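Page 37, continued from 36.
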């Protein structure tokens, strides 16, 4: 069974250099899982923080479940990330370095269980972003030229 993406943080790859990624579980309530199964979540402003021996995911928005009762969840509540103690220590050590942070890249279901792909990332500077945009544009132009040349040969 293939992984089913719920939310992808596209901005993260533009804003950060991704150093390392790890798959982790999440502690969720019932209405959160139902809202995720409906395909509703946002990782736009989300980030993770190490507190003690735990990793918490902050500012991930899961809207209230439509059919939920008054016991519906808070959309922006802190959610605990499930990792082994050794992984938490390793990621926490890397994230404590200056300029590094833990960023969620995507949220998905794997064999019916909600997972998050966390990355240790370093913020890009403005010139890095401009360089990446210029490189993408150059590749697009090369692809267009190759297509034009191939179409003209017939």
């Amino acid at each position: 069974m293939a992984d089913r993406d719920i939310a992808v943080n596209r901005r993260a790859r533009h804003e950060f250099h991704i150093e390392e990624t790890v798959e982790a579980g999440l502690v969720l309530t019932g209405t959160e899982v139902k809202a995720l199964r409906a395909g509703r979540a946002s990782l736009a402003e989300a980030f993770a923080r190490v507190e003690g021996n735990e990793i918490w995911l902050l500012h991930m928005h899961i809207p209230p479940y439509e059919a939920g009762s008054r016991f519906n969840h808070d959309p922006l509540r802190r959610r605990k990330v499930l990792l082994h103690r050794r992984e938490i220590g390793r990621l926490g050590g890397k994230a404590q370095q200056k300029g590094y942070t833990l960023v969620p890249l995507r949220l998905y279901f794997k064999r019916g269980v909600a997972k998050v792909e966390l990355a240790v990332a370093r913020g890009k500077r403005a010139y890095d972003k401009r360089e990446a945009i210029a490189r993408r544009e150059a590749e697009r132009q090369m692809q267009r030229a190759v297509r034009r040349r191939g179409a003209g040969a017939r």
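The chain has two domains: 4-123, 125-154. Flag for discussion at group meeting. DSSP finds four helices and seven strands in the chain.
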